Amino acid sequence: MHDPEGKRSEQRPGRERPVAGLTALGETARHTLRVPGALRRVRTLLQLNQVRGFDCPGCAWPDPEERSRAEFCENGAKHVAHEATPRRVTRKFFSRWPLSKLKDQSDHWLEQQGRLAEPMLKRRGSDRYEPVSWEDAFQHIAGVLRQLDSPNEALFYTSGRTSNEAAFLYQLFVRQFGTNNLPDCSNMCHESTSTALPEVVGTGKGTVGLADFDRADAIFLIGQNPGSNHPRMLTSLQSAKRRGCRIVSINPLRERGLVSFAHPKELRGLLGKGTLISDLFLQLRVGGDVAVLKGIMKAVLEAEERAPGSVLDGSFIREYTTGFEAFRKALQTVRWEDVEAQSGLLRGEMRQAAEIYVGAERVIACWAMGITQHKHAVSNVQEIVNLMLLRGNIGKEGAGLCPVRGHSNVQGDRTMGICEKPPSEFLERLGKEFGFEPPQEHGLNTVGAIRALAEGQAKVFIALGGNFVAATPDTHYTANAVRSCRLTVQISTMLNRSHVVVGEEALILPCLGRTERDMQGGRPQFVTVENSMCVVHRSQGHLAPASKHLRSEPAIIAGLAETVLKGRTKVPWKALARDYDRIREHIAHVVRGFENFNRAVRAPHGFVLQSGACSRAFETASGRAHFSVHPLPRQTLEPGQYLMTTIRSHDQFNTTIYSFDDRYRGVRGHRRVVFLHPTDMAEAGLEENQLVDLASHFQGEIRTVAGFRAIPFDLPRRCAATYFPEANPLVPIGSIADRSHTPTYKSIVITISPSS
Ligand SMILES: Nc1nc2c(c(=O)[nH]1)N[C@H]1C(S)=C(S)[C@@H](COP(=O)(O)OP(=O)(O)OC[C@H]3O[C@@H](n4cnc5c(=O)[nH]c(N)nc54)[C@H](O)[C@@H]3O)O[C@H]1N2
Ligand SMILES: Nc1nc2c(c(=O)[nH]1)N[C@H]1C(S)=C(S)[C@@H](COP(=O)(O)OP(=O)(O)OC[C@H]3O[C@@H](n4cnc5c(=O)[nH]c(N)nc54)[C@H](O)[C@@H]3O)O[C@H]1N2
Ligand SMILES: [Mo]
Questions:
Q1: Count of alpha carbons within 13 Å of 620, Cβ hemisphere only?
Q2: Residue 79's closest CA among 191, 221, 203, 230?
Q3: Which of 61, 374, 694, 724 could pair with 646 as two cysteines, CB 3.0-4.6 Å apart?
Q4: Which fold would CATH assign to domain 88-187+416-511+551-570?
């Protein structure tokens, strides 16, 4: 896929500035003020994450109860400014830009064209989108859906910005239509967490709240880059650090935000003086997490052997867990030599981590994509749980599991039933509430959906948000699969690759964003979201909608459902879309924990969904938490091969690219780069900034991308890092995590050759 970029690349390895200091504040101002419509944006920012305002459309990190007037980070400001842009993609735009021309524009260019302003239809054989009325658009979709041989030939994707209310209506529509084909961005994100946790602790969600960060004695940050992706988390880490909490980072890249942080609102921060964040940095090899965790746990068990009864939490293990003996025996057979070889670390380093772990009364373990996007991702997560169980670090104050979610409502969407494998209990309650028989057969996840399209088993693709074509693995394979569709439909705010790589027919249904006023039935409505720590709260935008043609997500789904299900549904779709309280009443009857939804969510800070694990009432088969045993993965590389991980830059939100810079990693003007160890570069005869081609190797298949710049970087030998989504053509569709089926975006075997 074509993606032209700027011409300069500047490496700034020299002076290390702490993350989020003066530059960050200046950057916020720059992003907000440099374009027309600045005032609209500043007014908007002041409502960001306020009790009566809207939820940040960025990450899912929670808001503190005590909020300052400006409760947002530099990156939150960028996401908001992007949505509140004064630019518009209108019918005039599409008359000037046929698809054959749009496809040569970069992802960055597409997103910068502004907000989608009216519904558009591309007909069969045409190279152009033309305006269409909402009613005709719905009729068109209904017509195509009715011709399918089975409801399972349609796919209904969701991205994680969708509100609870929209998500609930969407899954209801899809299930009344007759399928569980609800792939979502979670399938590419924390699915490994959602697969791993229920088995061993009885919930798929985290067990900590923000207040626990004020009590923890140690925090482990595993495979996560908060400086760029969850910047508000750094405030929690900084204050924990100042009270003496110890922080261990486990990451192949020495990320600046994990090293040092300066609060933009503090004088020290403004002067560029940062707090040192990590007490210990374990710079493991890409994919070496199971090994590192085993190493740390071996060291913990050794300490217990030296001083029996003083290291492990024996009473917790006896009372609340099963499987400890089998776990201990298995771990004893794992050899330190293998742990060192697979992790790329020395046993002394892992012993140091164990010392910090054992020296802390209360420990929180945080993790994100560095853990979940590997072949062994489910093992990764369950090994984290093993470590935490050893000293009873689940279900007590100041301690627990903290999977750090991505999209701002990705967790809520799952709670609302966006899931291709819904629990039968959920389906039963849904069927009872609305008087129908929901389909029981499991649906397709994201990778399954792509394969079904490629093999002609699915023919219609509808997306509630997101950028499926760019975010998914194996870009060329996926693009061809999508092109083979009879109809693709995107319900979106901004133009992206998925509006350009489309089926025979394609529709764009433009919707309101988080920042905008949502008037229904003559009254302003609010929606709700659930953050990474299970807090459900309201979100309400106040800006005038970007165009008079926009509809809210619930209104679009209701309109679509009514047309498609005509005569087959008893749900009063239009009435629900006129009053979101009525949607919430149904949610209260169907979703556990939402019993008094309408009242509870009107409390200033919303309400918390507590799982049993938070109080050690583990809802597993045995009623206990489970120690689990996992083999040590063995990654072998042939000469000339590297293990590549894909990462986000500081200046992007997933497939939305804000600029070609990555300030904290010292890259300017380029995204087609490959980070390599300087010695590896020297041995391969590569110069800094030299253009190279990359080839991935998987089960005899080879995929290539061309014209990446080699950049020397502080990462372990034989590891490589590239940006998402530029490197996605290298990720094989068949390379997925065991059991969770998450694409292995963070471990791809590649070779590198100079570009010819
Ligand atoms: N500004 C901004 N915020 C975002 C996003 C964004 O794109 N931009 N995206 C949102 C979404 S959807 C998500 S899921 C989150 C993602 O948030 P993160 O998970 O922090 O994002 P990534 O950049 O994918 O990678 C995380 C880290 O994993 C490390 N890593 C890579 N491979 C390995 C490995 O093998 N082991 C270990 N231990 N670490 C490894 C990388 O060096 C990197 O520091 O952020 C959310 N917030
Ligand atoms: N190589 C590699 N690939 C990855 C990853 C990786 O780490 N490495 N990470 C994966 C992860 S964690 C994730 S979550 C996925 C992300 O995959 P997606 O969620 O599918 O992608 P996004 O880029 O977040 O989607 C951006 C688009 O969403 C639309 N949008 C924005 N706001 C709204 C809204 O309020 N409503 C609606 N309806 N639409 C809106 C806009 O049109 C925008 O262009 O990518 C995955 N892909
Ligand atoms: Mo994500």
A1: 21
A2: 230
A3: 724
A4: Rossmann fold (3.40.50)
In percent, the amount of the chain with pLDDT more than 90 equals: 86
pLDDT digit string, tens, across residues 21-67: 434 544 555 555 455 565 566 666 666 667 678 888 888 899 887 76
| Cα-to-centroid distance, 467 and ligand 2 (Å) | 5
State in Å: Cα 300 to ligand 1 middle. Answer: 28
Phi and psi at residue 271, to the nearest 5°? -85, 0
Task: Indicate which ligand has the atom closest to the C-alpha of 82.
Answer: 2
Model pLDDT for residues 412-471, shown as the tens digit of each residue: 999 999 999 999 999 999 999 999 999 999 999 999 999 999 999 999 999 999 999 999
Question: Phi-psi bin for 342: left (phi > 0), alpha (psi -120 to 50), beta?
Answer: alpha
498 lines ligand 2 (CB under 6 A): no
Q: Is the CB of 471 under 6 A from ligand 2?
A: yes
Q: Please give the helix or strand (H or E) that residue 80 lies within, else none.
A: helix 74-83
Tell me the best of 1, 54, 467 to mutate to test the pocket of ligand 2, counting ligand atoms within 8 Å of each CB and taking the most. Answer: 467
Tell me if 188 CB under 6 Å of ligand 2: yes
For ligand 2, pick from 185, 645, 723 the residue to mutate: most ligand atoms within 8 Å of CB: 185
Unique residue bearing structure tokens 């590239």: 722
Write out pLDDT tens, residues 227-278.
999 999 999 999 999 999 999 999 999 998 898 877 766 656 555 567 788 9
Query: In the CATH hierarchy, which top-level class contains the domain 641-754?
Result: mainly beta
Q: What is the helix (H) or strand (E) element at residue 154, kind and residue range?
A: strand 154-158
As assigned by CATH, the class of the 191-403 domain is alpha beta
Q: Are 554 and 576 in contact (CB under 8 A)?
A: yes
With H, G, I as helix, E, B as strand and everything else as coil, classify residue 541.
Answer: coil
Mean pLDDT of the chain: 93
Give ranges for CATH 2.40.40.20 in the chain: 641-754
Candidates 591, 298, 273; CA nearest to 428 is 591
Which of 54, 156, 161, when mutated, tests ligand 2's pocket best, judged by the most ligand atoms within 8 Å of its CB?
Answer: 161
How far apart are the C-alpha atoms of 468 and 193, rounded to whole Å?
Answer: 21
Whose CA is closest to 426, among 206, 368, 354, 418? 418
Q: Which protein residue has the closest C-alpha to ligand 1 atom 22? A: 647
Answer whether 369 contacts ligand 1 (Cβ < 6 A): yes
Whole-number Å distance, alpha carbon 230 to ligand 3 midpoint, is 12
Nearest to 252 by CA among 611, 719, 633: 719
